[in-house]
Amino acid sequence: MVRRWEIGIGLTGLLFALFSLFFWFPNDIQGAFMETTRAGKPEPGDAFFPVLLAGFIAFIAAIQIVSALLKRDQEAQGSDYPRLDGENIKFLALFLAIILGSLAVVYWIGPLAVWLTQEELTYRQLVDTAPYKYLGVVVGGFALTFSLISWAEGRLRARSAVVSALLILVLILVFDVALTNIQLPPNADF
Amino acid sequence: MELAFDYILRGILSVFFTSEGAFIWLPVVMVLAGLVLGIVVGATPGLNGPFAMAIALPVLISAFGTGNDALLPILGFLIGIMKGATVGGAVPAILFNTPGTPDAYLTTLDGHPMTRKGQGYKALKVAHFSSVSGDTFSDIALFIAAPTLAVLIESALDLPEKAALIILSLSFMAAVSGKSVTKGLLVGGLGMLLALIGTTLSGYGPRMTMGVTDLGNGIPLTSAILGVLVLGEVFCAIEDRIHERRKNRQTEAPRESTDNSLSWVEAKRLLPTILRSASIGTAIGALPGIGTTLAATLGYEAARKRQKADAALGSGVPEGVAATEAANSAVSGANLIPVMSLGIPGNFAAVFLILAVESVGDFTFGPQVFRFTEIKVIEDYGTIINAELVIAFGIFTLMVLANLFNWTIGRYVMLSLGILAKIPVTITPALVLLITITAVYSQDGGFIAIWTALAFGLIGYVLRRLEISLLPFVIGFILSPKLEELIRGGFSGSGGDPFFLLKSPIALIFLLASVAIVLRATRKKENK
Amino acid sequence: MTLKKITHSLAASALALSLTTLPALAEWAPSGPIKLLIGFGAGGGTDTQARALAGEIENRKGWRIIPENMAGAGGAVMAANLKDQPADGLTVGLALDATFSFASIDNDNLNIDDFTYITTTAASQTGVIARADSGWTTMADVAAAVQGGQKIVWNNYSAQTQLASEVIADKLGIDVNHVRGKGGKSGVNALVAEDANLAWGGGAQRGLVQAGELVILLSAEDKPLVQNPEGQTVAELGIDTTFGFKFVLAAPAGLSDEARDALAQAVADVITDETSETAQFIAKQYPPAAVVIQGDDLNKTLQAQLAANEMLLNKFSQ
């Protein structure tokens, strides 16, 4: 199993390098590997360094694979070796769902409130107006910290809510009241 | 020599006076504030120094701007945090047997037994005394070694030599790879590749952006680094908490402390232990990427070898606390030797100092910093001077200030923070997550910053779970754009000679040294 | 600092009072905060200028203006982002004329017609510079050095300056090696570090020229540079295009004329007032003074530049 992970890591690197060389770079780099200046001299283009790097990654990945293949004796080691198992994936899925859900609230709650309460104005015009500018970070930020703390503690407690609320107050004081010319999420995106 | 003194004097003055000559408290206050915050952060379970530095950086940049005048206050605060956190980390380890960092684990071995014997506050005082001694020792080594090393390396470097020097720096990716050199180089290469997104030198417009307009100027640097270093850790911490909850682990309350004194005689008896550990920590710190845990382990082992029959390490003796605290604190100063002379970060704290320097003003770390340029004053323009050297001595001054504060005020702050250690570790990661998201959003101006931080957080999480070192990734990410510019410049500047790197003897030496470093790292790993 | 701000705003309100007696030039006012995208990184000349301007318009007009840096590809990254914003006057961007009239050539993301051009603010002092200890004073000296066998490395901070270098080298009949740098200051830095013999300066060279460390060999503007009043211009080399740049404030295409003119007027009020911080910065960094070309005139100027640049590129690649 240890060896399978060692080979897997190498293969991932190799596939990434090949994907970059044969798909990503050709489609996403306009410049060539080498170019000729209008004065007729060769010069490295925008693809030069990325291609060299991808080649380097492929080379190292190949060494990783070969050396894992050669080391048969490691097979005997116990079950406690670094890896990602089903538990990790389950955690990540739920964790990312909480984050993305909260960020969706951060993004949409302000515009939604404006849409419900204002006739003429849009959120774009109110990104610097209280209370609208605080809605995203207050509601979405609270959803994020409260749910994560509750999950970690395995229960809902008033303490978690108070701590989350206090943090958001501090964030508003620092990033909105004390510092001008910067914006709380999601206000810079409108 | 006179010139050197002139620069040192200007460096010291730059901390206390503005460029217009007015006296300012700001950098001094910032050092003190950072130090207090650092001790608090270190004493809080689930937080650590690099976390606090990471989050403070965007806030500081928003507050002070990116002008040259902002650099010393910002660095002062970060250096304060760095030094404070080292000291504060001993508090939960000693009082509650809950080490916040791996190296603080060794502090628990003797620190917590002391608490159980009713000597909790004595142990804290020992920790403070040893930690600050070790730190001061290490700083002195830095002040001497960094300029010397830089002067040795820096000899009118041209484009090929500069490119070769960066390659040499990158070869340290192998040295900081931890268990596997190939895996380290693999993620280092990945970091280098991701850093090339968006940026380009030609007129063709952004490359490798996958159609995302917001990536036109590349992946936002701060968001990416905070993501991989801070959010990756937060992801792991939250997952660990959930697992621990299922196992239902409890920490014990500390016993009332009855023996709180640390007399001069006792302190003096600890000095040999402290000096030995500080030397070990300094030597280890000077090598990029080996880190504090090994220093603490070696320091503790060295003390164990010399222990006296009546004071066996592990039974709760001050020597045990002193040995680990002096060693791990001595790493931080010496760690800045490769940072200031080569621009290579040796640990996470150093990464954020480099990031601050990259983002603020037109100062960069590297051998050019210690060039003693002749000082010329020119009317209506200003002074021709190596401003970077002045800043470097300014940074040294900030470090000395931080140590002075640590010796005096830090002790009282540390002793009053036992209460913080009770903060449940279930709370802090979630808070850090929201603070990070808000901080990167305001600095990099948009959701692209949040997506970047989360994506890099995911990379950090996977690398941590696979126990692959993160430092090669970060080093690669930071150094790669510079290397591309130098290689393309060197190539074109030589008139299209593909072997331009091999035609300069100095560049050739650097390249050979790089190969040697990678081979050595590989061999060392195989012998284990 | 605070006191200075208070006196500033006092002066501003006094000015506002005196202006209320005049007929209003434009009725338009922004319906929310204005986001000012800066096409270059924090700390540079464009950034300093934009932030000073934003602060002073805020003080004078009471409009909320939030500056935000969006660097990359000589303003083109910002422009690509700007063109997709609503044309309501709440998002504007400061970049260079070359962003719209040069970077847009053969660019899938950028077209000159994607924008409403509001006003220029200042013009560069672009020229070819060299270290003073090179002993050169004109491009003829450079040509002589090349003929004498010296190898020349020329640092270009943009695609446009690289084209300019190639055109100039072609005119002089010399062979040089071109190196690309990043950012307007990279040319000056390359000269100081002796990584290049020739470089372009757009304004960043001012201090070092003043100090006698660098010399200006050639003006890329239509007249000699302020710091080298007797110097040669590109026209005198037989090149009928200039390579200098102006700062241009733009909005997405479709901005109403009313909004465009009100914004242009707000900017002009600040930069033509010699007591304003912005005007003083411009006078120092981009001498002699602010350059105000607005609305349709600006649009025509940019279109003409684009045509000239396209012609130059075509002629030169054949």
UniProtKB/TrEMBL annotation, chain A:
Keywords assigned: Membrane, Transmembrane, Transmembrane helix
Name of the protein this chain belongs to: Tripartite tricarboxylate transporter TctB family protein
Keyword Membrane (UniProt): yes
Natural source organism: Tritonibacter multivorans
Transmembrane segments: 7-27, 47-70, 91-110, 130-149, 161-184
Domain of life from the UniProt record: Bacteria
Automatic annotation (TrEMBL), chain B:
Presence of the UniProt keyword DNA-binding in the record: no
Domain DUF112: 29-475
Top-level taxonomic group: Bacteria
Alphabetical UniProt keywords: Membrane, Transmembrane, Transmembrane helix
Keyword match DNA-binding: no
Transmembrane segments: 21-43, 74-96, 180-198, 218-238, 336-357, 389-407, 419-441, 447-463, 499-519
InterPro entries: DUF112_TM
Entry protein name: Tripartite tricarboxylate transporter TctA family protein
TrEMBL record, chain C:
Keyword vocabulary terms for this entry: Receptor, Signal
Annotated transmembrane regions: none
Domain of life: Bacteria
Span of the signal peptide: 1-26
Pfam families in UniProt: TctC (PF03401)
PANTHER family associated with the record: BLR1237 PROTEIN, TRICARBOXYLATE-BINDING PROTEIN
Family: Belongs to the UPF0065 (bug) family.
Name of the molecule in the record: Tripartite tricarboxylate transporter family receptor
Organism: Tritonibacter multivorans
